[in-house]
Structure formats: C-alpha cells, structure tokens
Fold this sequence. Notes:
Number of domains: 2
Amino acid sequence: xxxxxxxxxxxFFGGGTDHPKWFLMHGGAVIxxxxxxxxxxxxxxxxxxxxxxxRIVYSHIETANDTDEIQHxxxxxxxKFLGHDEGLEVHHDGDLPARSGIGTSSSFTVGxxxxxxxxxxxxxxxxxxxxxxxxxxxQRIRETVGSQDQIAAAYGGxxxxxxxxxxxxTVSPLEVSPEVSAELQCHLMLFFxxxxxxxxxxxxxxxxxxxxxxxxxSHLMQLxxxxxxxxxxxxxxxxxxxxxxNWRLKQSLAEGVTNEVIDSIxxxxxxxxxxxxxxxxxxxxxxxxxxxxxxxxxxxxERLRRLLEIPFKFETEGSTVIFNHTTLGGVVP
Length: 333
C-alpha cells in the first residue's frame, strides 16, 4: 500500500492567466501558496480473489471489472495514462470539501498519480508530476481548468509561477523572509461560504470572454509583479488593497464569479475591518480569503459568525509519500 498527502492551495494573484488559451498567446503569471490542508490518497494492488478488479472509495463506492467501467474520471484516466494493468483499490479523503476553490480536484489528480508511480516502484520529480496532472485534466478528461493548481499541489510552497507563450512553465519560490511570511499569514483569514459550485462552468464562461477581457487580464498579470514587490520589501499592509483590486477585476471576467450572497458577506467583512479579500478559485462560492489586521479580526469573526472559519498555515512540501509498504520498497517514513 502507498499513501500520499497532497496540499490544497490558495491563489492570491493572476488567476485566469494560467489557462493555456490565454498564456500561449499572451503569457501568464500567478502567485500562490500551498496550505496545511490536504488530500489523502491510498492505493494498493487488489489481490485477484474478488468478484471485481477495481474498488474505488470516495464520496461513493465503485467496483469495476474493467478500467473503462470506472465512473470517476480522474481515477479512470490516471490508470489508463500510466498503463496500470493490475487491479487497484483506491481510497480518497480530504480535509476540506470539493468544488470550493482551493484546488481539490488537481490535488487529487497529483496525489493519485504520485501514489501510482510509487506503487509501481518508480520515483517522479515534481515538474514531471505536475505536467502529467495537467495532461490528464486538460487533454484526457478535457476539464476546463488552468495550469496553476497542479503545480501548487506538486511543488508546494509560496511561489511565483510564470506561464510562457511557448508552453514552458517556470516555478520560482518567492523571496519572502520568514518574518514577512509570518506577518502575512497572521493577517489572513479563511471562511467557508457554506456552498460549493461547478468551477468548470464559470471557467468556461471566463475563457469564452478572453477576447473581450484582454485589458482586465493584462491588469491581473501586472498585479502579480506589484505583489512580488510588496512581499520582497515587506510592505504587508499594502497587500490587502491589492487583493481588493484583484477581486474587483476578477468579478468583471464573467457572470457567476460573484453573487448577492457573496457580495453581502464581503461587504460585511470590509465594514468590520478587512482591508481586502477574494473568493478563491473560479468564484461563485467556496472559500473566502480575507486580509484583516490582527486587531480587527475579532470584529470580522463576530460579523461573519454564521460562517465556518478555517485556520491554516502555509506549507512547503507539496505532494509527499507518507506511507509506502510494497513488496519492492518496504516501509519508508
């Protein structure tokens, strides 16, 4: 059996410019960090003593005698992509709900591919792991997704990710001192809005609008550079205003990014002392990230008391094997 632990992510700036339909023409850039909330995937080769070949356990339980019968698209296509012929039992658990804007789907894809490689006695580097997850999601499943979530899940850490028009992707850890990182972290609050959404529908609407929103998307890319400067100089108080500007731009990309409920929650937070924030991911629901001075956090917490607050910390490891007990490899810490 192999168990992987793969982090979810928070994307601060540049979301939307990581989609190939944009960056292959204009380039793109994102600033994101992985957090200490995880997707856990366990895999084992299933002995040939059962009536089924595969057993997949997530929010549903599936059994199948042929890979093509597997209903979960990520599981089915990852198995086919790697050409795994043996029967499999796959279990998936997550710390946070799916379809909530923190990259849960891509974390699962990365974690499953990682586990299957290790189960087959292979090692894989972070760059290849991210690239394979992108291929599975974009080319095989044909999900309407960008390319940042897979990278954040595979690499981990606080990164500036650049998407080049030639298709190359560069991952650069941000030059952030431990003191600045700690100060930023203590200014961030994460709340669950209480409802999820189908991100692909909102993303498709954004992509359809790319030609009409070149000015806005170019501005979102500029904010990435401004955010890098803020983090490098330690002027953390400016970060909240930049998040607010980013959120206003993001709302203009497509209908469905926000709604009356989200707008009301956000305005309540601003009135209570938040300096800025954004809905994570495609929008429409999921998690709300806020930048709030520590002195104002009790007031924001009280104003948003109907919502669930999620404490979190930045993490640096990316997708990791936390248990490996195979006939080839034995037990690895």
